[in-house]
Amino acid sequence: MQQVMMQEEIHEEKIDVRLWRQILQLAKPYRRYILFAMLGSVALAAGDALFPYMTKIAVDRFVVPQNTDGLIWFAGAFLLLVLYQSASVYLFINMAGKVETSLTYAIRQAGFEHLHELSFSFYDKRAVGWLLARLTSDVNRLGDVVGWGLVDLLWGGVAMLFYSIVMFSMNWRLALLTVCILPILAVASVYFQRRILRSYRDVRRVNSKITGSFNEGIIGATTTKILSREDRNLEEFQTLTSGLRASSIRAATFSALFLPIVLVLGSIGTSLTLWVGGDGVVAGTISYGVFVAFVSYTVQFFEPVREIARIFAELQMAHASAERVMGLLNTEPEIKDQPGLGRNCPPLVGAIEFENVSFAYNPQEPVLTDFNLKVEPGQTVALVGETGSGKSTIVNLACRFYEPTKGRVLIDGVDYRERPLSWLQSHLGYVLQSPHLFSGSIRENIRYGRLQASDAEVEEAAKMVNAHEFITKLPKGYDTEVGEGGGLLSTGQKQLISFARAILANPSIFVLDEATSSIDTETEMLIQDAIQTVLKGRTSFIIAHRLSTVRSADRILVIRGGKVEEKGSHSQLMAAKGYYYRLYTNQFLEG
The whole model's pTM is what? Predict the structure, then answer.
């Protein structure tokens, strides 16, 4: 197998608008929430623009002339504006929150579904932590920036537009002093864009590695203690966290520089308004109300500017997350159905043939070269040989977990690429060397083999593989919880349950991949006894180092270097006194 690697993508130093279109497409089912959030932000911006104008009316109509005529009506209008603004804030916050949670759910759901569609080769190259980082922290950031950031961005843009309209309607000269700062701000934004984006890409990249390190540290805690690797692991983890710290500081520095620049520019705009507006009040060309309103507008005008600057910095960080999440969602499965394949296929009989099959996980290291094999329906074929000889590869190709790089595999006389994946894989039963159980009860884990199975059928499958006896001795029987990964059961018990789960599906093709290599002798005898019953009438592959498991196979293939060195029944190979004979004799003497 090729070395497991965490691959990191290399992107251009600019924002890819197509990514955000894809993300918004995922949010399409929740467009009603988005629409109401946008309406709330526009309504909020309109209310914000009215408050300084109300102040202008109050100063010019009531304060300066010291007149109270109509004050009650003005107070009523102001109260209505406050109620209107409160309703706008509620609508804005409520809908934006729903957008965030809904989009996060949609992306995680799409990601989880897509992971089930990807081929085995994808998981060969990605660590668990690499995937977890994308479906947790990266997805959270996307939900936050779309739910709040983009809506806040709309509020900022609309607020600046409304402020500008009102300011220009009152005094266009003072308004020009305020908005003339914007071109300078635009130049500063462009300057910082690439630097902030590059820094946050580094942050997300290192964060994925740290998540992977956490995952390996937790899973491998026992091995770490046995090998006394605590100090070495801490050193490696410290190297990663130091890298994250450096990248985070660099990103924060650029963001910290950008925001003060916006504040300084806003202060300059306010100062110009105070200077020119104050002269206008003294000269009598500007009323007190207009002057007070303009001071408020100038301060408020740069509030959305600062908010946009903050959101812009967050967008840089979120874009790095978007690249990684959408990169996962856009990954095409290497093995998928050809277009136009029908679902009405004949029943699978179980004849399997390899025709001049070549395969390599790594192009420079071929595993199989021009491999040929023909298995008749219902035949049991055992594959033996040294580690790395290609035994598991042959079975993985037969099950279409991988496809040949050259040649073809025929199932019932037809190239299996001309059949839907579901046609073959729904007829597979596979028992691994290291069985995996899901959290839940024993009954639920066996029923995973066929979800529609009744309790009686679940128990019958357990009896067929000799698991019923130990299950009924447990305190809760079939309702006993297995724990995470089956941690509350022994390895042998987990193997028997996974065997029952596989047989419950009534597969046409059955695979035992080192199924007895890590269990005790008593459980091995139970499985060997079950094999005699279970494999009858099914095309079966048995991969085993313990040769006692394969003696009853119809054919035994000795695989060395991706080629069949010897083949025949147990008695034939023993009589030939070749490589198989030496392997079997050595194991017998060792036993």
Answer: 0.67
